[in-house]
Task: structure prediction
Amino acid sequence: MTERIPFVSRQIPAVLNHTRQYDQFLYVYPVISRRSQGLSLGINLNPDKRCNFDCIYCEVDRRTPPRTTRVDPGRLREELVALIRLVQAGRLEADPRFRTAPHLLRDIRDLAFSGDGEPTMIAGFAESVQTVAEVKMAEGLDSTKIVLITNAAGLDKADVRRGLEILDAHQGEIWGKLDAGTEAYYRRINRSHVRLDRILSNLLEAARVRPIVIQSLFLRVHGEAMPADELAAYCDRLEELAGAGGRVREVQAYTVARPTPEAFATRLEPGELDAVAATIRERTGLAVHVFP
Ligand code: SF4
Result:
């Protein structure tokens, strides 16, 4: 079963700065996110920049050395508390990087595990989720979501499953990546040693327990958009998820927003992305929200 949510993302102004380093914080950063429909506080559990995918569109700068290679739960807690209080005191409003969105700066829409790598890869994932949940409760952010943005490769790990249970108890959501319908295209786009079968199995297991969001990036590779047969296979995978008891709350379809290190990975035009979304809606019946 799918649920539908209002589509208001085009009203959110463009993000001025997507840097994952804010002042002296190592693990947290504020960002105006169209997909969060407002202010999101990002939590970077991968300051070491490690990922088990190597997406051709990845914007993480892995040429510069990391400032740290491990997550210190105590410091993560302190930084998140400090950032929440900084937001609530209105201090983001004085930051020129946020000047296009002053009306969005007091309402924290979500706390999002979204960093320079794959959050489910770290040891102590559940401990980090628990830390964030405790801060959220202590700071009175009762209705604020906690979002896990993940490539799904680690969702089957015991520690990660414990973390998902904590998420479930604290307005948690899983936003899982799916950019392909076949192993061959997945390898071309995501360049991972993890098999697509495992990604799909992990998405299904997660979606059987709670509704999840699927995030899919569509782009041109050497000038070629996703072929029609690949898009059909992608829709097949979504239908298989639903057919096996997985609940997909929505699909978020987006494209490359900024120039990528791989010059051959380029954006779709808004009309092209709308056409892809229409095909997905028609084939699967799912709610599809477009972020051009
Ligand atoms: S999963 Fe995310 S962090 Fe990892 S390579 Fe892909 S875009 Fe980059």
In short: The chain has one domain: 9-291. The chain has a mean pLDDT of 91.
